[in-house]
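tool_call: predict_structure(chain=1)
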Amino acid sequence: MSVSVQVHREREAVPEYWSDARTFAVVVAREEGAGIGAVMLLDLGADDPALRFVGVVEGAVDARVPLLEAAAQVVREAGGRSLRWVEDTGEMPLGAAAALEELGAVAGDEVHRWWRHEVTEGMPAAPTARGAAQPAAEGASFRVGMGGAWCDVEVVGDRAVLVHDRQEEGTAAALAALVSLAVRQVTAESAGIRAVETCVAPGDDVFEAALVSLGFAPTTRRAVEYHLAWGT
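tool_result:
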């Protein structure tokens, strides 16, 4: 079965993948018409064209190479000199890593660390209000947001996985309130949740402080930033 790749530049075409205002294109891989992976391309607005563009990669690792080839071409056309994205070291098989190496992708020194909070009995009840409804990323159960920050919450077996992002630095107290809202809601609505996990970008001391205040602890699981660069 062959994999087809399409580039979408309008939110309306792929609303389930469109992240926020920084998204300028989404590359989707399909097999027999069904989506099997995607790269959401974000324009961070950096002056350095080598740092301006990042990708958020989802889906089957077998589709990584055609997805990233197409994504890199979109970034080239937008004036970028490299594409950066994060891969979870615990989920990528050796064959997929080798394919990325053949493509020219390089694992950098930027290591993201996963944090985990064990859910205990007697946790506070879920808040009575969620705030305004917000569209969540594909695969997520729901999204919670406060101000310019949000968390998508995905349930994987007995784990809840939080995908966090924010428009501004914010404060540890505000981020703790956001994560607490997500934890309370998912534990109230999904039976059998034993742990909540989230990934912290390198140097994000504010988010780390928020997690520590809520009882999260770092784990041995890591995610590594890859980059694919080309000539000027």
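agent: The radius of gyration is 18 Å. Proceeding to next step.
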